Amino acid sequence: MVRRLRASLRQLLAQMARRPDVLCGAIALGCLLAAALKFTCSRAKNVVAPARPPVRFFSPDAPVMDLFLGQLEQVDRLRSTSDISFIFFYAPWCAHSIAARDEVQKVARKLSKEVLFIAVNCWWSQGKCRKRQNLYQYPVVHLFYRRFGPIEYKGPFAAAYVEKFIQRVITPVTYLPTQVMLQDFLSYHESGVVGYFDFNASPQPPGYMIFLTSALQALKKDFQSAIRFGVITSRQVAEAISVREDETIYMHRHFNTSLIFPRSERNFTAENICSWAYEHSESILRWLQPPGAKSRLLEQELSKGPALLLFVPFDPLAPHQPLIQQIANISLQYHTCSATEGLGQTTSWDATWEPSGLPSLSESTAPKPPCCNTVVLPAWHGLTRVHNVCELCLNQSIGVRPNAVLAPRCPFYRMEAALDSFYLRQHTFSHLLAHHVACSYIISTYSPFSHYSACCKTLSLPMPAPPPAPEALPLTRAPWEPTDSDPQVAGIAGLKCRTNKTLRFYLLDSHLHWNFAVRLGAQGDESQHLFAAIVNLPDEVHYVLEHRENLAENLERFIQNFSVVYSPLKRHLVGASMPKSSDSLIREVTTVSFFSTVMDPEKDVLLFYYTQWCGFCTVINHVIIQLARLFQGNGKFVVARINVAENDLPWEFMVDHFPVFLLFPSNRKHASVKFPDDLPITLPNLVRFILRHSSDVQRGGDGKWAGPGRSALLEWELRRLRGEVQALRHARERLSRQLSQLWQEKRRLALHAQTLESRNGELQKQGRRLEELYQEKNRQLLDAVSKLQALADASESLLSENALLKILLASLKEKAEPEKRAGDGAEEAAKPDLS
User: What angle do CA 573, 578, 582 make, to 5 degrees?
Assistant: First the structure.
């Protein structure tokens, strides 16, 4: 075969050498074939169509600069033209970006004159935003205050919230020109940081820009702005808080001593001011903003202890929030601890505790004492339970003007010295009788310029309610009032320090997070009203405020009832909706129908505890169905089940694992019995368990369980079971025979299939051999045809050449004949004439 191919190739090359035109044609044909193949393969690579070019994401009439091609290099140029810039990074396919688009457009139409709104497509693969920004979610909002930024917004994408955050960035510092505005600013429940800067000395004090930047740093750290920043430019207003030096930063606190930024200890920078403010801030009411995706925010907060969740309809743009203010006042009273917190605890000094005759802070330069300490003296009589409780406060002697603001801490050595001086003179107060108060001033043994004030009172355990203080008392209000430790009697003031069940106050916007309130027990159509619940996650309980008409009174009573040792509040049980029909074979029980169904005194109830995620519960469903069919028609026995994952029950009816069966006998619901865990859950075991513990079974003389009604029922049930077992056996035998026949038929078909497969294999081999023979003959025929064609072409060329030769010979003959005749004539003429 190879020899034939080589011979054919030699012949072909010899013919091409003899005929160059054939070689040129073959080369041209090969080039055309290669070009066609390249064109076809290049088109086959472009299987995926190129992405469509992006289009404008925002509406053309919206005042938003939409860089839909991802032109990140233009953002800096555009941002330099405006003081406040709002940059919205989005992905066109993102549902959150699409939902936030409408809200951003609403805000842009209102604040377009003050803020520059820029939107950047960070998903376009050819844009620089996609290449430079590593964003893991969309949308992302950055705000810039001139050159400061970015300040990332992490709140809800609602128009009111976004607009409120932009307004805080526009005015991060509140201007306080009068004492009234300063008082309103400091009376708010959030911590307030006030800076005093004298603009008369300099039109642009250098410290003011640092203070302004610190306010922006606070917004960058916490978008909810838990700390408020204010600025004072008037010396008279600054003196109201005992601030006299320029560039002084003052932090007002409700429960502890207000502080001055320690410039001698920390550098005066924006970062230090912001961190110092957050380190010493007080949080009594916190907003929770769950992001709406997978988050552990609620778990982290609720795991800290009992929490009061208040769902309120909140409008961030409203100038006044009376509902929020009421809640803040209640929280402020709850966290305001009295002076009887205990030995060694430092408390804040209330203005009403000052000695009579001294003006308040706004009326005089005399400040409040910096710190106090409660001292409990031992019982002076061993047979009585009477103790002397004294309030010891640090102060300076008269004649030396004290300044509490410049002494933000209670030095340990000073308090220890005060205690030493006090204990040396404690015999002064040993003669006190119950319900009397005595105050005195103790000169320090360490410094002649300091003295300590001590007000003492005898207390008996338990302490009775004291009578009103006499007029001659040096204190307008005793620090230990109210004396009764019961929260329901003493009220909510200082309740945090009088109970071990301390509450944390949290606010949630009911417009955004009403689904959490519904899960806690709220109605589905009350999102415009207040909903309050106390959630104690470690104890797995929560309580719901039922009466919400008079908020202040009912909420205080709700907190007081929770704080007592034996709380009268009832645990709120969350359950699924009632089933539409109760006539099913297995009755479905919910939280609402539990007592009416399970605790029916006239019926024995077998309750099956399950959850939708329990695989073992699903496996034994057929056993429960057989059991329910077995007792179907018995009006005194009910088979029920409850989904514990969706229905809460009282603690005495809960279980610690699944599946569990509990039998509640009639007229003996207190004697409920649990199905043993060591027994397999089968139909006979369940029947024996029910018959043994049901109420109709009586104990016979031999001590065994017996009864006329139950024995007959048992015999009938056993006969029924035997009949079912016999029918199952017959069915099994029939099924076995059918399976045997099917197996034999399957075996025969398998052998037949093997025979057919072998024949098919032989036929395929023969077909392949015939195909190869056909291909060989076809190649030989093609070679013969090519050779014949070459011979035909050669013969045609020879014939044409022969014809040309014939024509040439004929023409040559025609030309030769006249010459021959002329030669013959010359020869004849040359011959002599012999005659």
Answer: 130
Sole residue written with tokens 């034994």 = 620
Q: How far is it, in rounded angstroms, from Cα 796 to Cα 807?
A: 17
Which residue's structure tokens are 């009764």? 484
pLDDT digits 0-9 by tens, 640-662: 999 998 898 988 898 989 999 99
Sorted by sequence, the CB contacts under 8 Å of residue 642 that are 6+ apart come out as 588, 589, 590, 594, 607, 608, 609, 610, 649
C-beta of residue 499 within 8 angstroms of C-beta of residue 505:
no
- Among 371, 352, 410, 404, smallest CA distance to 243 is for 404
Bridging pattern class, strands 386-396 and 450-460: antiparallel
- Tell me the average pLDDT of the chain: 78
**Pseudo-torsion of CA 509, 511, 515, 516, nearest 10°?**
10
> Is the dihedral angle over the CA atoms 636, 637, 638, 644 positive or is it negative?
positive
Which among 222, 243, 365, 221 is positioned nearest to 230, based on CA atoms?
A: 243
Distances (CA, A) of 381 to 341, 463, 483: 24, 17, 22
The pLDDT score that the predictor gives to residue 381 is 38
Q: Is the pLDDT of residue 2 over 70?
A: no
Vertex 629 angle, CA 628 and 630, to 5°: 90
Q: How far apart are CA 498 and CA 338, in angstroms?
A: 9
Both tokens of 379, joined, read 């019982």
Q: State how far the Cα of 43 lies from the Cα of 358, in Å rounded to an integer.
A: 96
Residues 105 and 111: their CA atoms lie apart, in Å, by 10
The answer to whether the CB of 531 falls within 8 A of the CB of 546 is no
Regarding beta strands 65-67 and 115-121, do their DSSP bridges make them parallel or antiparallel, or are they unpaired?
A: parallel
Name 48's Cβ contacts closer than 8 Å, sequence gap at least 6.
Answer: none
The CA-based angle 349-341-253, given to 5 degrees, is 40
Token pair recorded at residue 598: 């399970």
Is the full-model pTM beyond 0.70? Answer: no
To the nearest 10°, the Cα dihedral for 627, 633, 638, 642? 70
Q: 65-164, which class in CATH?
A: alpha beta
Question: Which class would CATH give 290-337+494-572?
Answer: alpha beta
**Measured distance CA(507)–CA(307) in Å, rounded:** 10
What value does the CA radius of gyration of the chain take, rounded to a whole number of Å?
A: 51
Structure tokens at 319: 């100038």
Percentage of the chain beyond pLDDT 90 is 35
- Give the CATH number of domain 587-693: 3.40.30.10
Q: Quick one: pLDDT at residue 515?
A: 86
Phi then psi for residue 639, to 5 deg, are -105, 120
Q: Are strands 191-196 and 227-232 parallel, antiparallel or unpaired?
A: parallel
Q: Is residue 139 reached through a cis peptide bond, with omega within 30 degrees of 0 on the bond before it?
A: yes
Alpha carbons 819 and 111: distance in angstroms, whole number: 120
DSSP string computed for 222-263: -TT--EEEEEE--HHHHHTTT--STTEEEEE-SSS--EE--T
Cα–Cα distance for residue pair 364/370, rounded to 1 Å = 16
Question: Domain spans of the chain?
Answer: 1-40, 65-164, 290-337+494-572, 371-460, 587-693
Residue 226 identity (one-letter amino acid): A
Cβ burial of 279 (10 Å; 0-12, 13-18, 19+) is exposed
Which candidate, 306, 236, 275, 793, places its Cα nearest to that of 506?
306
Three-state DSSP at 434 gives strand
Common-topology check for domains 65-164 and 290-337+494-572: yes
The span from the first CA to the last CA of the chain, in angstroms, equals 87
Q: How far apart are CA 358 and CA 474, in angstroms?
A: 10
In the numeric block, the tokens 């970015």 are attached to 150
Q: Which residue has the higher pLDDT, 41 or 759?
A: 759
Judging by DSSP bridges, how do beta strands 307-312 and 531-536 pair with one another? antiparallel
User: 206-221 and 159-170 are packed helices; what angle lies between their axes, rounded to 10 degrees?
Assistant: 160
